[in-house]
Design brief:
The chain has 5 helices and 2 strands. The chain is mainly alpha-helical. It has a two-stranded antiparallel sheet with strand order 1-2. The longest helix has about 35 residues, at about 70-105. The radius of gyration is 20 Å and the shape is elongated.
Amino acid sequence: MPDLDLAFTALGDPVRRALVTRLARGDATVGELAEPFDLTPQAISHHVGVLRRCGLVEQRREGTRRPCRLRADQLTLLGTWIDEQRRTWNDRLDALDQHLTDEEGAR
């Protein structure tokens, strides 16, 4: 499982979110990832490194190319954590709503 703190910190940056969105469409090299940005390939490489360290992206060698791939399974784990939090808070809010309704009916 990815380190949640590292992953959410990484995704807090708009460039890294854009990279994740791009990689969701398919593998890409750092050069390809850099194309739509006004950033150097070195800056994009740094962002990719952050995403690699938190487990959201992997990079492999294919001859002279080093394509990056989104680890969708790790992204799914983050989504699962978010869904669990949402369910917990929805349950709490439903219980509060029921309590307030019961109190109103008791008056």
